[in-house]
Specification:
mainly alpha, 8 helices, about 210 residues, two-stranded antiparallel ribbon
Length: about 210
């Protein structure tokens, strides 16, 4: 049996998708100094940060909405960790513009440096854990489907590869991979409306479940 009831997690998925789609395309281009000085740096990253935060809350609500098969449950626990790390990184990412003057003067850039280090670490973790969850959930028919899962998987894997390639490898052309997150945003939007297999009630109904 499937259901398309518009649960709270679906609303959060829609919000997350719209925020990511609104913020991502506004990312400024140019050198690091030029990007940090651009007035859209903060606005675009604030929207994306809010999008990842909404996605995190949506995943939490999805987990609480009912029991899951072991495979999907295991990958969801990992995806929650990966998404939480992505949100933390995005806070430093957004705030990195405060180091523009330090960068131009050749001084230490603690916020920018923290952002760069975290991005090289957190982006791949987010990508692998969320891609694994999207695939497992589609196979278990508890979220989305195989018809749309490729969008989310390609999106997060491309996005996750961007930071290590640019920050660690120095491949500036790999910046284009950051835009792959737009595919994941489309997956979020589609998954929010996609009918899924009905699950037994979760935390809200008092059914025992493992803590987050």
């Amino acid at each position: 049996m499937t259901t398309s009831r518009f649960s709270p997690w679906r609303i959060l998925f829609v919000v997350a998708a719209l925020l990511l789609l609104a913020g991502g395309p506004q990312h400024p281009g140019g050198s690091m100094a030029e990007m940090l000085a651009h007035p859209m740096w903060f606005a675009s990253h604030a929207l994306v940060t809010a999008g990842f935060a909404a996605m995190l809350v949506g995943l939490v609500l999805f987990r609480r909405s009912g029991t899951l098969p072991e495979r999907s449950s295991r990958w969801l626990r990992l995806a929650l960790i990966g998404t939480a790390l992505q949100v933390i990184e995005m806070f430093f990412h957004t705030a990195a513009s405060v180091d523009h003057a330090n960068l131009m003067a050749g001084r230490a850039t603690p916020i920018l440096t923290t952002h760069l280090v975290l991005s090289a670490l957190c982006y791949p973790i987010f990508a692998v854990t969320v891609a694994g969850f999207i695939l497992a959930a589609a196979r278990d028919r508890v979220l989305g489907s195989n018809w749309i899962s490729w969008l989310g998987i390609l999106g997060v894997l491309g996005h996750g590869a961007a930071a290590p390639l640019v920050v660690v490898g120095g491949f500036i052309g790999a910046r284009v991979l950051f835009t792959m997150m737009m595919l994941a945003a489309i997956w979020l939007l589609l998954a929010a409306f996609w009918p899924v297999r009905e699950r037994a009630p979760g935390f809200a109904a008092g059914t025992p479940a493992r803590a987050l």
